[in-house]
Design brief:
By secondary structure, the chain is of the alpha+beta class. The chain is built from three helices and ten strands.
């Protein structure tokens, strides 16, 4: 991909033009990121207090019944959002689906092992563990090796 930046007083505001032979998933991700929300933090609740969470601190986000929990090193914080809403906010190059009910932070993975049934057991830097279902293993491995 070729990137050119033209800095000049003649430009009133930033604009982006994409030249491509065909529409690709990479282009779709770039456009989605450019148009997407710029939220840097999430707010959750723990022990009756509102807690500010940096996405980088999150190991994974899990839906359990009607509750959505952000699991961090040594604690879980309830988010007052639906899992799909959290997924839309988080950086898709850093976070990916592990299962229908879990979104994991790729940057917090320490190591993983393949189980006989095709699932992966992920161990995070914090020591937390979570599983990736077979359906999401290929996508997760691609994101790990290509950065998104």
């Amino acid at each position: 991909m070729d990137i050119k930046i033209d800095m000049s007083d003649k430009h009133e505001e930033p604009s982006i033009t994409i030249h491509a032979k065909e529409w690709t998933e990479e282009l779709e991700a770039i456009v989605k990121w450019l148009k997407g929300p710029r939220r840097k933090r999430l707010v959750g609740e723990m022990n009756g207090q509102s807690i500010v969470i940096q996405p980088d601190e999150i190991d994974y986000v899990q839906a359990d019944g009607r509750k959505v929990m952000a699991v961090l090193s040594g604690r879980s914080v309830e988010l007052k959002m639906k899992l799909y809403e959290v997924e839309e906010i988080l950086d898709e190059n850093q976070f990916t689906r592990f299962s229908k009910s879990v979104i994991g932070n790729l940057d917090q993975i320490k190591h993983f092992e393949l189980f006989f049934n095709g699932n992966l057991c992920i161990t995070f830097k914090s020591g937390n563990k979570e599983y990736v279902s077979r359906k999401y293993v290929k996508t997760m491995k691609e994101k790990l090796t290509t950065g998104g």
